[in-house]
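A common beginner's mistake is to predict each chain separately and then try to dock the pieces by hand. The better habit, illustrated here, is to supply every component at once so that their relative placement is modeled jointly.
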Amino acid sequence: MELLTQEIGSIRKPSWLLKTLRDPNSSNEIKEQARDDLAYINIRGFEDAGLDIVYDGEARRAEMYEYPISRIKGFEFCGKIRSWDNKYFRKARCINKIEYTGQYHSQEMKHVQEIVKADYKVPITGPYTLADWSYNEKYDSREEFIFTIAKSVIRPLIKDMIEEGAKNIQIDEPAATTHPSEMKLFTDAINYAVEGLNANFNIHICYSGNNYRELFPDSSSTSMIFTNDALKNPS
Amino acid sequence: MWGAYITGTYPRSSELIEATRTYSDDLQEIYKEDKKKAIELQQKMGLSYISAPKQDWDDMFRPFCINGIKVGSLDRIYETNTFYKTPIINKKIKSNKGEILKSLTTDLFSKKKPWKVDLPDPYTFATSANNNFYKDRRDLILDIAEMMSKEISRIVDAGCRLIQLIGPAIPLSKDNNELDDAFEGIKRITKGLSAKTYLYINHNDASNIFSELQDCKVDGIGIDFTVTKPIKLKKLKGINGITCGLLDVHNTRMEKPKEIAKLVKAITKEIQPKETYLTSTGDLEGLPLEFANKKVEIMGNTLKILKEERNK
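With all components supplied together, the output reads:
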């Protein structure tokens, strides 16, 4: 049996990148070049370290919720909500029919494909987390809301990514264990999004308090392998 | 009698959020300004008690993390995407010296309007903490109760008229012994206190302990009716007061005052308490400030409808 190694998601943004992005004199071209440079450094760093599967350290993404939500129709950002202490995130409410607007990780994926030597994976935020971190004012039930995101956004997104060459896709679902009674809903939504699609899928779950045990009663019924990184962020 | 008040921590303004991230020199002033605005809105909407908005509390337990109680790692607040830092108890809990009272900025309250404070109930505090010292959890609960009791007495002496204990963990108690421990902790706080006391249960379904709640030594019980379905309410018949958590802090959808008033009346009819309050289902900081403000307006407008109908 192989023991494959991979990093899990975002790598800290260096000060030179932040300085460039915040500088009002930086043109879009310069900002883009800075992001490309960081992606290159991250990928080479992972490869030099000997990891089997790499990505760009999410060099272009500020975080994992706002980025996809701002590229999906039907949502509107409505303000900041506390995660803890002085850490906040911009929360959106779903007020219109949800529509997919195209492969929103395409640009970064292409850049990775150009420079990568090892196998690569593409991390995406899963349907359950996108739904759970949003207010739902449009759909009659949570189930309908979650499955609409799985069906209308995540499945077409994954299809497009596969068409563009992705072979390994990591679905990030930090909200997975938030509602223990919904573990089947979570599992069904993921399976619905990936069923019959030809790629290797992994789920990444973190920030789940002490509820990781909730994952396992249903894990045997998913078509995926869980890659729980509880040890990455020990609480 | 109809009344209304908000529950829990009020959201921070964008300016305050920014100031907490940049550690602005004006941070304390901005906290005060945010609190002032939250208090003014409650007064303007005619709420029965003005709640301490507590925007400077990082979570429900943090101000108590002094005098030997340490701040631990993050844990999820029940089924939300908000986290608290676990209090760590490595030695016997000592009384504090009025730090909680100081954090309430009581000089902002008008003398004309009664004000209230929400605090964790001792059982919820104990079960949310990481206890490395007490062998018997009952001893921990009672020491937390004693520490809180002294602090609450100071708060009441400063003019507070309603202490609402927030007890989401209570319905999760495993058996009657645990429930007795929880109620004993509350009793130690409420005994002889010259202010009204309510126990508010959010986050978890309280219907499994409706009958037992009759034995809790408080003036009234509050229920989050988005989690606890308003059925079998007759089991609560006999309690003095009920607080109806009906304004949803987990959705930006705005409730209609007439519909909320109808629900409040239906619940009251089932339980027949002496007094009924309307509240938010929990901390309004579950919503961005603009939406929280709208919910407070809805609360005030609902109260107005209830009072007008009574006067007809």
